[in-house]
């Protein structure tokens, strides 16, 4: 097993990875910026190294500096967490060339599946259903209009290199399409350095359901069932759960089996290794379409862990070390139901704008079926330089009703003083009749004005 692992991330995911490493007896190396000198992941790691100034471009995205720390500290592997450099194929290639193990897929596969247009082509060849769309990237604005006219409005304008809802807009007519095309191109170039755009038919009132997969280097691949991620705001997930209540309602048509089989078909077609997530849009008629693959651990991996009993970070590490998967597909089962709420420093009264500031008293909820993955502590600062997510609150119950009841109690018990957060929004949503009934879609949250 690895002796030393560098975690190339910050916040709650860095803390999450460090805890598993330490449980496995692995020495952990943290990196941090000037703004994170007192951060939780820095306090917890066995050693920590300053990598630059607060802006991410001068610290957490500084590939050369992070790699130098890995080499000088004797790290045998790098865990990227999610976000930041986790899906940067160039960084993976640099790590590989340095003789250090990247805990994730190979750089070539990451580059292939990280491009949405290429991933779509691969999926079609593997027999995985995809949303009807342009056969590839559209060359210019007029080509986008021609593709939309053939598909029929409304359409979705998407950045090929995008993620997290960045560079994505719905267009209901030609005028709005032209405006959306220009906007998505600009946003994609500024965020990803790639302004490639493609067009898809927009599926009305869809569910966003994803399948967790993991594969080793010995030809073994398994799925760990699905997650429901339909409660979103501006294409950003807000609440996730596993299993999907929608999929569970459609067991009569084997929806779960068909979606997970499609996910594994794509894994096998690309010879993918390590953890990944296949994201699908699911129509009201239960038709499903592949939209993209996330070649990393997801924020919401926690709900999958809760219903399967699997530590996905540990599995990632073992697979990267060359071990076979610890369990076969037949041994994996769903136990109960889990829900995750993303806790942000954001102001619900100001359109959920980020609300950095000082954390005074801080008390996390606890009790049966309650888990908190946090990256903050009392008397600390939430700076304006990074994503304002403070923690993920997860509850598990024997069924969905119990998971919801536990989440309500946990939200009420969570105390974060002196900082504006979205705790009140979550408390309200967990008592909403539509949410309790599992009757929602990706546009539901914004339609109700939240």
Question: What percent of residues are in strands?
Answer: 25-35%
CATH superfamily of the largest domain, by name, is ATP-grasp fold, B domain
- Measured distance between first and last alpha carbons: 47 Å
CATH class group of the largest domain:
Alpha Beta
Binned, the helix content reads 25-40%
How is the CATH topology of the largest domain named? D-amino Acid Aminotransferase, Chain A, domain 1
- Sheet of most strands: 8 strands, antiparallel
The CATH architecture category of the largest domain equals 2-Layer Sandwich
Number of spatially distinct domains: 3
Mean pLDDT, all residues:
95
The number of helical segments is: 16
- Compute the number of strand runs: 22
Q: In one word, what is the shape?
A: globular
Query: What is Rg?
Result: 21 Å
| Class based on secondary structure composition and strand pairing | alpha+beta
Low-pLDDT sequence parts: none
- Report strand order across the widest sheet: 13-12-9-10-11-14-21-19
InterPro entries: ATP-grasp, ATP_grasp_subdomain_1, BC-like_N, Biotin_carboxylase_complex, Biotin_carboxylation_dom, Biotin_COase_C, CPAse_ATP-bd, PreATP-grasp_dom_sf
Keywords: ATP-binding, Biotin, Ligase, Nucleotide-binding
Protein name: Biotin carboxylase
Organism: Bradymonas sediminis
Please tag this protein with its features.
eight-stranded antiparallel sheet, 3 domains, Dna Ligase, domain 1, Rossmann fold, 450 residues, alpha+beta, D-amino Acid Aminotransferase, Chain A, domain 1, 16 helices
């Amino acid at each position: 097993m690895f002796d030393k692992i560098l975690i190339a991330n910050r916040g709650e995911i860095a803390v999450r990875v460090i805890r598993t490493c330490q449980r496995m007896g692995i020495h952990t190396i943290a990196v941090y910026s000037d703004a994170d000198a007192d951060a939780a992941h820095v306090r917890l790691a066995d050693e920590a190294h300053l990598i630059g100034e607060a802006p991410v471009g001068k610290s957490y995205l500084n590939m050369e500096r992070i790699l130098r720390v890995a080499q000088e500290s004797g790290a045998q592997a790098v865990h990227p967490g999610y976000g930041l450099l986790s899906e940067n194929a160039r960084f993976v290639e640099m790590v590989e060339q340095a003789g250090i193990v990247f805990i994730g897929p190979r750089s070539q596969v990451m580059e292939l599946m990280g491009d949405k247009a290429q991933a779509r082509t691969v999926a079609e060849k593997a027999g995985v259903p995809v949303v009807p769309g342009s056969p590839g990237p559209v060359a210019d604005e007029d080509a986008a209009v021609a593709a939309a006219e053939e598909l029929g409005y409304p359409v979705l304008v998407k950045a090929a290199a995008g993620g997290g809802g960045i560079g994505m807009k719905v267009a209901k007519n030609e005028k709005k399409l032209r405006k959306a095309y220009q906007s998505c191109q600009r946003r994609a170039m500024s965020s990803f350095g790639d302004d490639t755009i493609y067009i898809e038919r927009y599926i009305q009132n869809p569910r966003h359901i994803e399948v967790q997969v993991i594969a080793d280097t010995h030809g073994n691949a398994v799925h760990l069932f699905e997650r429901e991620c339909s409660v979103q705001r501006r294409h950003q997930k807000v609440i996730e759960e596993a299993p999907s209540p929608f999929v569970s309602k459609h067991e009569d048509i084997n929806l779960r089996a068909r979606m997970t089989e499609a996910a594994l078909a794509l894994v096998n077609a690309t010879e993918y290794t390590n953890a990944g997530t296949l994201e699908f849009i699911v129509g009201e008629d239960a038709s499903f379409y592949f939209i993209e693959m996330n070649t990393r651990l997801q924020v919401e991996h926690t709900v999958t862990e809760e219903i399967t009993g699997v530590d996905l970070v540990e599995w990632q590490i073992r697979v990267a070390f060359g071990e076979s998967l610890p369990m076969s597909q037949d041994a994996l089962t769903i136990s109960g139901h889990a829900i995750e709420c993303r806790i942000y420093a954001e102001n619900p009264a100001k359109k959920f704008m980020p609300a950095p500031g000082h954390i005074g008293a801080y008390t996390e909820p606890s009790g049966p079926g309650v888990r908190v993955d946090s990256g903050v502590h009392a008397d600390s600062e939430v700076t304006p330089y990074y994503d304002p997510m403070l923690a993920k609150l997860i509850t598990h119950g024997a069924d969905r009703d119990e998971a919801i009841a536990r989440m309500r109690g946990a939200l009420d018990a969570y105390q974060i003083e002196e900082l504006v957060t979205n705790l009140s929004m979550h408390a309200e949503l967990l008592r909403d009749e539509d949410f309790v009934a599992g009757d929602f879609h990706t546009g539901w949250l914004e339609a109700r004005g939240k």
